[in-house]
Amino acid sequence: MGMNVTQKIISEHLYAGEMRQGEEIAIIIDQTLTQDATGTMSYLQFEAMAVPKVRTKLSVSYVDHNTLQTGFENADDHRYLQTVAAKHGIYFSRPGNGICHQVNLERFGVPGRTLLGSDSHTPTGGGIGMLSIGAGGLDVAVAMAGGPFYLTMPKVVGVKLTGKLSPWVSGKDVILELLRIMSVKGGVGKVIEYFGPGVETLTVTERATITNMGAELGATTSVFPSDEITRAYLEAQDRGNDYRELVADADAEYDEIIEINLSELEPLIAQPHSPDNVVKVKEISGLTVNQVAIGSCTNSSYTDLMRVAETLKGKQVHPDTSVVLSPGSKQVFEMLARNGALADLIASGVRILESACGPCIGMGQSPETNAISIRTFNRNFEGRSGTASAKVYLSSPEVAAAAALTGKLTDPRELGEFPVVEMPEKFLIDDSMIIAPANDPVTVTVTRGPNIQPLPLREDMPEELNGETLLKVEDNITTDHIMPAGAKVLPLRSNIPAISKYVFAAIDPTFHDRAKEAGGGFVVGGHNYGQGSSREHAALAPMYLGVKAVIAKSFARIHRANLVNFGILPLVFVDEADYDRVDQGDILDMPVVREELQAGKDELTVKNVNKDVIFSVKHDLSPRQIEIILAGGQLNYTKKQMQ
Ligand code: MIC
Ligand code: SF4
User: Fold this and answer.
1) What is the whole-number distance in angstroms between the Cα of residue 580 and the centre of ligand 1?
2) Which one of 61, 99, 119 would you pick to mutate in the ligand 1 pocket, going by the greatest count of ligand atoms within 8 A of its CB?
3) 478: Cβ below 6 Å to ligand 1?
4) Which residues pair with 226 in a beta bridge?
5) In terms of CB atoms within 10 Å, which of 100, 340, 469, 503 comes out highest?
């Protein structure tokens, strides 16, 4: 039987396990990327492994999240990242060079290769036919040290694209449609692979928008074939030599098929506060829009921003609407500056930000109280913008540009003629903001400012886990709930004791103090616990506060792996009804949990002491993961193995 693209790349990189859906496999990682907000921890962990030089084909460290330097913290982090990269064979993309995913696509992505990134939107690389997976920083550190990446062999969902997008409809609308169909948990355990005649009508950056936001489906990753469109893009990036054709065999099979006719799509929008709350723009048009924010790793390519510039050219943004724009990369920014589009944007009243994540992660530009903010980003979780009462909608750049002009949510097709923007024949190539690693690493001193604090570790897992239910939460709790980001908290990413004060801050500001006082305990959650970001701080900081286990109805992939990495047991209710039988404050007891795990038991027993009932939970851990949990986390485990 033939293979699909996903199976081809996995089989070429298979290190351990069998490619049977649901089984744990390990794959070899060719490239890694980190960004600054997750990177400092990742490099501290890499340093702890005492491997002098990365063993990947390529590793790049980007600075794009914490670029608002309101104190010494972020700048300290940048200096640490630059020096640690120089010392260990890692390329360093300077602040200002752009958002990791956009720059990696432009300058480094290679069809058929594997990429592991400490950011959940790493699947952007799927736009170029790369198997690109988001993971916690520790998994990325292991990959840099030459270790394989472990994952569950996913189901492969084939999305068959037919037809062709109409004017004013773009890649964002394709992924919004898929989110509408599948929901934010519909992709868990799956790779989304695109095929069919519609594929060749989409540019590489449109494909990248689609694979980027596949993260919001909870998918392991998303991937497009690599074809003549990919070749043209790579040639325009002066990287024709990196091209390789990679398409599914004619008789390839998929575990599930979803069909989307591109010709039938209309401009769509995700309403607050979830990326899958999708409707047609025309269904809710007329809403007053206070802010428009254009950019992020989803929609800040050259063609995206040129289309916005063409739409706004010679016109003014609405007087009651604040419009901000952040270009995805220095390449995009400089090209807009040189061809005059930047001048058109400035003239129309757009506020230009530096090339970075910016407002997407709440780094400035928080909207006004109760604002309606239309953003071309990928996440609209409550409070993520930095304004608790804001209502964030997610749309394409075309819809955002229309709202910028009219001050109201507007179907862009009402604007008339569609500005056709072609991919340039040659992009502007200047890699001077990417610094190669030192030729002579012994001469490099790694600089650690006071913001870089040592990594806390957990002890071996005890015989018994016992403690209070510190918090009980609902379905779809995001890592932004568990460990908020934004301008105030992000600078503390390299300092776990300091950042742990904000764990669950938006849900229950007393969590930190209560957890400390109780000496840790349990967290109880609903479905899709930990969706969203790859930030391992959402496991590391709770671990520091003594959280022993999280019992939920189901977990998001990356967060579950992060819990294991930091020695927190991720457990699932065998009978979901037991969720209703646990209340916050109840004391839970797992008296022989270590023994049960060692004996290979799949189901464990928990006693609810207050209610005097016993219920069962399952762990779905592989034998390797059980060892990690028993050792108190991945770093302890790796150290033991090395000994
Ligand atoms: C995000 O979009 O939430 C982030 C910030 O990029 C995170 C990473 C982080 O928290 O540092 C992600 O998506 O993984
Ligand atoms: Fe940055 Fe936003 Fe993309 Fe995360 S989703 S990498 S914060 S631009």
Assistant:
1) 31
2) 119
3) no
4) 246
5) 100
Which CATH fold topology does 465-642 show?
Aconitase; domain 4 (3.20.19)
Q: Give the residue-averaged pLDDT of 469-482.
A: 97
Please state the domain extents for the chain: 5-264, 268-411, 465-642
Strands lying side by side in the sheet with 190-195:
221-223, 190-195, 155-162, 256-261
Question: Which protein residue's CA is at the shortest distance from atom 10 of ligand 1?
Answer: 535
Which residues are CB-neighbours of 181 under 8 A, at least 6 positions away? 258
Active site residues: 64-65, 119, 379, 533, 535
What separation in Å is there between the alpha carbon of 133 and the centre of ligand 1? 13
CB 357 within 8 A of CB 65: yes
On the question of a common fold for 5-264 and 268-411, the answer reads yes
Name the pTM for this structure: 0.98
Q: Determine the Cα–Cα distance for residues 133 and 146; give it in Å rounded to an integer.
A: 16
Architecture of domain 5-264 in this structure = 2-Layer Sandwich (3.30)
- Closest by CA to 432, choosing from 96, 136, 90, 139, is 96
The rounded Å distance from CA 356 to ligand 2 centre is 8
Quick: pLDDT tens for 481-524: 999 999 999 999 999 999 999 999 999 999 999 999 999 999 99
Record: fold of 268-411: Aconitase; domain 3 (3.30.499)
